[in-house]
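hey
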């Protein structure tokens, strides 16, 4: 649907998404049907970004581990792998994901990524803005950076993004030199744009 392709809903969005963020993961290999959908979305020009998962494991997950998906691990405020983040297979790069157990600023809040959220109260569901953590918080940082890039250069394709990512043009190296368990490094919106 988001890629503007025919789908089971029978409807199409008014505009195809340049970047599709998928902040979910499952600890199994990529299903064939999802691999086909990702290939079709890429063929339509959409870049697919997904969170690597929060199991603190080096394992295949989907959709991050599917071919053609930009898989994102989470790091803490010091650009270290967040304690919960998956790593290794399926991870192309890292982004801030929060670490609620830390309070490096001393502001009384855990070092989460502030996000829209909701709380259940006695009167119903109340929209909130809360600090959260997870690779699901990290993936949108990457998606936003890629969207900024596409806004400046609409001719960028999923394949050209793959090449830029592999070259280190979008990231800052945070581990041992070169690709490692957190991919090619930490997303840098400044460097990428």
């Amino acid at each position: 649907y988001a890629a503007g392709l025919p789908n089971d809903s029978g409807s199409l969005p008014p505009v195809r998404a340049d970047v599709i963020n998928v902040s979910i993961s499952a600890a199994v290999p990529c299903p064939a049907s999802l691999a086909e959908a990702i290939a079709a979305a890429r063929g339509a020009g959409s870049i697919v970004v997904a969170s690597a998962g929060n199991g603190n494991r080096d394992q295949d997950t989907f959709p991050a581990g599917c071919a053609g998906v930009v898989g994102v691990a989470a790091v803490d405020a010091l650009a270290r792998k967040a304690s919960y983040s998956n790593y290794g297979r399926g991870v192309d790069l890292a982004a801030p994901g929060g670490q609620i157990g830390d309070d490096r600023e001393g502001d009384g809040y855990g070092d989460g990524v502030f996000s829209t959220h909701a709380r259940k109260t006695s009167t119903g569901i109340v929209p909130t803005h809360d600090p959260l953590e997870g690779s699901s918080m990290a993936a949108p940082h990457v998606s936003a950076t890629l969207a900024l890039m596409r806004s400046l250069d609409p001719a960028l394709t999923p394949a050209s993004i793959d090449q830029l990512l592999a070259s280190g043009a979008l990231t800052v190296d945070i581990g041992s030199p070169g690709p490692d368990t957190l991919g090619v490094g930490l997303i840098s919106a400044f460097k990428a744009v």
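The chain has four helices and eight strands. The mean pLDDT is 95.
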